[in-house]
Fold this sequence. Notes:
Structural class: alpha/beta
Bound molecules: adenine
CATH architecture of the largest domain: 3-Layer(aba) Sandwich
Largest sheet: 8 strands, mixed
Strand content: 15-25%
CATH class of the largest domain: Alpha Beta
CATH superfamily of the largest domain: Adenosylhomocysteinase-like
Helix content: 40-55%
Distance between the termini: 71 Å
Amino acid sequence: MNYDVTDASLAEAGGLRVEYAGSHMPVLGKLKERFAKEQPLAGVRLGACLHVTTETANLMAVLKAGGAHVALCASNPLSTQDDVAAWLAVELGIPVFAVRGEDNDTYYQHIEAVIAENPQITMDDGCDLVCTLHDKHPQKLGDMLGGSEETTTGVIRLRAMEENDALGYPVIAVNDANTKHLFDNRYGTGQSTIDGILRATNVLLAGRRFVVFGYGWCGRGVAMRAKGMGAVVAVCEVDPLRALEAAMDGHLVMTVAEAAAWGELFVTVTGCCHVLRAEHFEVMKDGAILCNSGHFDIEIDIAALRKMAASERRVRPSVDEFALPDGRRLYLLGEGRLVNLAAAEGHPASVMDMSFANQALCAAYLVREGKSLDKRVHTVPREIDEEVARLKLESMGISIDSLTPEQQKYLADYQIGT
Ligand code: ADE
């Protein structure tokens, strides 16, 4: 079998960690049993481009149990857990192409290796697999049943493709499921971003001036958790409604120019490019820490920072110091890539449980319905979203009420007033 991983001898260590993560993924565990029995993906070729983590390994095991032929590559050059990649290749026996720290050429060669397996379904995180398939292999689009997309950035790219009539097959926006973004983006990114910052720097957050760029679900989560650790939080946001929400959530709200001079620790989570630029580095305090938790490493203008710096050195794992000619030092974490995956382990398993349950159920849905869906971006069917919520509540031992017949009648009757 074809694969490319850093070190196949890491498989045993990876397996222990995959099993541990699995013990925090009860919904996925339930689906694995169901998939093994019902074989909803029997014989289907599925190509995945995801962060290669212990949680993703558990998803791959579910897809394989459901009968799929799975191939996997990394969705970011710096997020692969090499022991997990080894376990997937050696023990689960799937073609895996993922090497932590791979360069851009290798990253795209790995995507090509997945495409060479002729997937009928794509499962993407950031849309690089889908874009490469469309750009380089348009002749393969006709064979596709459909795809699913894990993250906000990928959904934005897909919607742009749809707008331009460039989308060659239906794709489900898993990110937009309630049981995905309200939990993974908010609580997952919130916690794991702080985790990445702390593992990289070991700084005290209490009393630190902490700036969050972007107040989408990820930004909300990061700001909330930073505040919870005692940081003084400021939010920069271009959307007036979100900026207002940030203000009423109790955060300072200011422009990027104001924040650059005010802040001590900066986290970009906007999905947009060059949020922090030369003019901002010019006014930052000595010792300022910069990191990104958005999908791509384009939010901080690293080339400009490098150009301004008199010297650059790695002072500890995941921490690069840029010394400026006037003596100030700025610290960039995880090379500006997703700090939660570059410097920590990504979102905890118990939240990925819900995201990946949506992915597994959407793959089965695409096998059943893909050929009848338009070549558009589709929302996750409500039944899937609700089933994931129900299964998660059940796994947490939480029971909820249902409406009484009288209450149902009341809600359906618009004539009952004062
Ligand atoms: N994205 C964020 N955290 C992740 C994780 N733990 N596994 C896969 N994808 C992720």
